[in-house]
Design a protein that fits this description.
The protein is mainly α and 181 residues long. Helix content is 78%, strand content 0%. It has five helices and no strands. Helix 1 packs antiparallel against helix 3, helix 3 packs antiparallel against helix 4 and helix 4 runs antiparallel to helix 5. The two termini are 29 Å apart.
């Protein structure tokens, strides 16, 4: 029994480290995209040298509205992913594994599902708009990576929401049980 608890604690510590690494990586990506966006407003001639070698100069020259709209989607999705993992980091660092069933944890799980759903829906909308722009002659293949997993995020949000709802019901029953005892 003790070895199983030790193994679970070790796995949880590993998950904490992984969530921190993912959060830092997503924050760096969102920060890079944000700096490039601000830089593109000040010096539009550098749009061909954006973060991650994004060359959106043709899009910028053809339609500034399309450029700012699509870049806005990329930026918003990247920031939401960083915020999502910040919520995950908060959850794994503040949760008390000896008493995990409390209202803060259930609210945090539901909050994570809302961020995940937001990312999925925004990614889906952005992908559809990129397809529509593609039919009008715009080449946006290089942005595909930013919203490729929209359906996976929507499905993951549904699963997390179900887990969060079950968790919150469990917390309610636990609180009722503690009041009756």
């Amino acid at each position: 029994m003790k070895t199983r608890v030790k193994a679970n604690n070790l796995i949880f510590k590993g998950l904490k480290i992984i969530s921190w690494v993912i959060f830092v990586g997503l924050s760096v990506e969102a920060g890079g995209l944000l700096v490039n966006f601000i830089f593109s407003l000040v010096r539009p001639e550098f749009i061909q040298n954006l973060y991650q070698k994004l060359d959106l100069s043709q899009l910028y020259q053809n339609s500034k509205w399309a450029f700012f709209g699509m870049y806005g989607f990329v930026l918003t999705i990247s920031i939401l992913k960083a915020v999502l993992f910040y919520q995950v980091v908060l959850l794994v660092t503040k949760i008390d594994l000896s008493k995990p069933f409390n209202s803060w944890v259930s609210k945090q799980i539901l909050k994570i599902s809302y961020y995940t759903l937001s990312i999925g829906l925004l990614s889906f909308i952005a992908r559809q708009l990129a397809k529509d722009l593609g039919h009008n002659g715009f080449v946006l293949n290089q942005l595909e990576a930013f919203w490729a997993d929209s359906q996976a995020f929507i499905l993951m949000a549904a699963v997390i929401y179900v887990i969060g709802t079950i968790f919150s019901k469990g917390v309610e029953y636990q609180e009722e049980l503690e009041e009756t005892v």
